[in-house]
Amino acid sequence: MAYENIRLETEDAIAILTIDRPKALNALNSKTLQELESAFNSLPATARALIITGGGDKAFVAGADISEMASISAAQAREFAALGHRAFATLEQLPIPTIAAVNGFALGGGCELALACDLIYASEKAKLGLPEVSLGVIPGFGGTQRLTRVVGKMRAKELVFTGERLDAAKAKEIGLVLDVLPADQLLAHCKAVAGKILKNGPLAVSQAKRVIEFGADQDLRAANELERQGFAVLFGSEDQKEGMKAFLEKRAAGFTGK
Ligand code: CO8
């Protein structure tokens, strides 16, 4: 499918998705959200990791598109929010690891997009925040819930109530981003992290993601049961046999994802 507002490339089993509307600081209008949902549903079968970043040199994504939202009704807002939730849930549930390379402003829906990724790295010039209350609304693409799970309830309330924009260093201090890189090294760093992951058994990485993701919303007993099931399932895979055999034979494993 040809996209207007996003670009999707693949490099060595890493899919790189760029949100590319730099004139509007990559703001998410309906068309862009639809393209994202479609891209997440149809990534190339060869992609074993996904990196998301923003086009241009200023923004990751500066939020949902305010010019589109300014005059919509409550019913249309529900539809718009549902579209964002659907796209981001699809992203969150991808069976491959996902990395947000936050190269500039990640505000509102942009911060929420990053939060739906597994890992977030930021450039030194990134600014992150959920400024929706300054527009008279609240985050509508999962930000109130995902931010709370990442930084804790009180810090999430502080960020959402004040709408404050954090610089990258502060975002790292509170655990909202993992590491801060010079702007020209951000993408290379994300590719290197993806590269490390790619050396491991793809089924194991996928299973690890699944049990962490689903386990985080359950009590410890149920979550540990998920882990037990995931662990056992992997013993039916060729990758488990190859991984352990390679260790015993003192050689690198050749995983096939089967
Ligand atoms: N939507 C639409 N256009 C935008 C957005 C946006 N979120 N952000 C920037 N733009 C546009 C500007 O209007 C401007 O366009 P133009 O050149 O035509 O005037 C262009 O991008 C460049 O922006 P600025 O001139 O403002 O650039 P600055 O460097 O001066 O400022 C900022 C950069 C600080 C990022 C500033 O643009 C800004 O504050 N943007 C808005 C940030 C924001 O409030 N984001 C949250 C939006 S609300 C949201 O995301 C809710 C999500 C849930 C929705 C649920 C739906 C129901």
From TrEMBL:
Matches recorded under Pfam families: ECH_1
Chain segments annotated as transmembrane: none
SUPFAM superfamilies: ClpP/crotonase
InterPro entries: ClpP/crotonase-like_dom_sf (IPR029045), Enoyl-CoA_hyd/isom_CS (IPR018376), Enoyl-CoA_hydra/iso (IPR001753), Enoyl-CoA_hydra_C (IPR014748)
Keywords: Lyase
Stated family: Belongs to the enoyl-CoA hydratase/isomerase family.
PANTHER family the record matches: ENOYL-COA HYDRATASE, MITOCHONDRIAL, ENOYL-COA HYDRATASE-RELATED
Protein name, UniProt field: Enoyl-CoA hydratase-related protein
Species per Swiss-Prot/TrEMBL record: Archangium lansingense
